[in-house]
Amino acid sequence: MTLSPAESYALHKSKGRYPKTQKFSESFPFELDPFQIDACHALENGKGVLVAAPTGAGKTIIGEFAVDLVINSGGKCFYTTPIKALSNQKFTELCAKYGESKIGLLTGDISINSEAQIVIMTTEVLRNMIYSNSKTIDDLKYVVMDEVHYLADKFRGAVWEEILIHLSDAVQIISLSATVSNAEEFGEWLQTVRGETEVIVSEIRPVPLYQHVLFGNRLIDLFGENQKLNPELTRLERDSYRQVRGNWRDKPKGPKPLMRSEVIEKLDREGLLPAITFIFSRNNCDAAVRQCLAAGIKLTNTDERKIIRSVIAKNMKNLAEEDLVVLGYYEWADALERGIAAHHAGLLPAFKVTVEELFQQGLVKAVFATETLALGINMPARTVVLEKLSKWNGEGHVAISPGEYTQLTGRAGRRGIDIEGNAVILWNNDLDSTSVGGLASTRTYPLKSSFKPTYNMSINLISQFGSTRARTSLESSLAQFQADKAVVGLAKQIRKNEIARDDLFNQSKCDQGDFVEYSSMRAAIKKLETDSKRSKRKRHEIEEEIGSIRKRMKNHSCHGCPDRENHSRIAERAQRLQREIDGLEERINSRTNVIAKRFDRIKIILDKFGYINNDAIAQSGKMLAKIYGETDLLIAESIQAGVFNQLSPADLVAVISSCIYESRNEEAAKVPRGEVQNALAVISKIYGKIHEAESDLNLEPMRSPDFGFCWASHKWASGHSLTSILKGSDLTVGDFVRSMKQIIDLLRQLRSAAPDLQVVIDQALGKIDRGVIAYAGAAV
């Protein structure tokens, strides 16, 4: 008899097999779900777990069980998150539950109670601890990796794999992931690198999600019975096309879409607020708020507005009064009091934190957000609205993926508050309900590794393990695991093709002679005839060559075969299969040991530039080991070249900014003259030297330095006000704060890596870690 998870748990509970799980589950005012119970059982059994479940399903309860185990049994637990906002949120939650003395926080710029039993941190902090052999890791029993699907992130994903590969085998890993279609494959890899790991997948949303399309002013279900497209919606779409004369396929004429303010009013009337409207543009998020204000929308009552004002006053008390106008404070506060807000990376962090706090309290009812809100921050809504199903990816407009759609709409439905969640797609002339239905019902969004060795990673691994073991450890990455699995499929296809090819070769055999050789001549003639239309060779030369081959064919022993055409066709099919086999073998070669091959090339460059000598780490290599980031080698080479030695604190900040900043547009950068200009010229030459070495080895090049933030960072380091820097600039306050925080992070790394620069670095930090920047560190 097979028991359900719930029945199995009841049986275990009655026998007292899992006393720690039982005690933990009884601390909640609700019954734990079967997947949560199964995961807790696995942890109590000493196994690692991978839990893949929808947004809002309660995955973090499993992470909290690891915290509970440590609180009651000793040892340490690290709770890692991908972003600082999540770390702060979890820190606040656990402090409230277990007390501040037992909980610590490490996010790079904030350090609170770092030797506590439970430390919440960003993943980069833990990775750096592993490489530096930090004593803080001693007695570590559990590591919770929240949002572990982040390892697919192109820029930061490698950090998750570094931790999973190199953390001590004695540590139990609790991996918490959004629903992915290849959870079993990911779990299989975890088994190989972490030992016994239980994979627990739940596709059950705690709050059911209903999908709708807002067709003009009509809210229509996307699906009808049996999850099939609603025939009423397809009829309305068809009728809208019929209204157009002539070539109606190219001229849809549906109902006029509602304005954003009208959508909010419609949702309010339907009882579907609070709602998050995802708009894939910061400017349009802000414009939506302004439109709602202009329409006079007010979603709050007198008591709610009073609470909102008190939260704003509490959170904004450290802002300089002279900066309020440039920050857009008054419009922002007015919108909040009406229950409306934007949420995107261009906002001051304190503004975002305030919006999140008020939304969680149900005081803000309509938020217009970019997709960054879907990254795990606890902000569920009753309804999620999607304006479009495409977004700008930096190069062009691309359709959002099924995984992104699921992540965005996963915000709909507040557990314990709503009986259902709602996703609303706004119909427009570019929308096709069939495509929308496919997107909404697709369950195939695999987790793909983005892991690749960097210069810093490679030098740290060589330092820790030596080249041979370092190379072996990289071969155990998920990236190589997935490449190897793909190779298995390719090899299977090769074997299948080889059997078919050999069979065809046998069929083409003839007592007259070698038909493979004969058909090769026929193929050569075909190729020459095709190429003659594009070739720069003279026509008579090609015709002479064709004539020569034809002459050889006539003299070939197979030419007189009575079954010549049939034998030739069979031989040609065999040769086509051979060419396909050659192509597949090339693909296998390109995937085999791909991670280790990259490491080998990086090692050649590290050796060429003097950072290692065989396995011996040079002094410069020890310095590089302390510099993390996309431009690690460029920064290390700049230190070696003495680029920063004679710079003033403000000049240093401006020059360093070129190594962290990425411009959002291609406008010419404004650069301070004098020492800054000279230093940037040297950095550009250094980059050119690195780029040339990478190109010679066919290595993906490091990103180039970007001078787009030099002017703004120099002015801030020189004591100018935020207002004077942002006035007349396209730079948003959120981008400004984030870039300055990245400069601070990098300067702190340099202080450790280059002791000779400590004095000027400390002076630079003192000049820039002030005002809105210092407040951002404390608020986020």
UniProtKB/TrEMBL annotation:
This is ATP-dependent RNA helicase HelY. Keywords: ATP-binding, Coiled coil, Helicase, Hydrolase, Nucleotide-binding. The keyword Nucleotide-binding applies. GO terms for cellular component: Ski complex. PROSITE patterns: HELICASE_ATP_BIND_1, HELICASE_CTER. Residues 525-594 form a coiled coil. GO terms for molecular function: ATP binding; helicase activity; hydrolase activity; nucleic acid binding. Residues 40-198 form the Helicase ATP-binding domain. It comes from Candidatus Nanopelagicus limnae. SUPFAM superfamilies: P-loop containing nucleoside triphosphate hydrolases (SSF52540). Residues 291-462 form the Helicase C-terminal domain. GO terms for biological process: nuclear-transcribed mRNA catabolic process, 3'-5' exonucleolytic nonsense-mediated decay. InterPro entries: DEAD/DEAH_box_helicase_dom, Helicase_ATP-bd, Helicase_C-like, P-loop_NTPase, RNA-DNA_Helicase, Ski2/MTR4_C. It comes from the Bacteria.
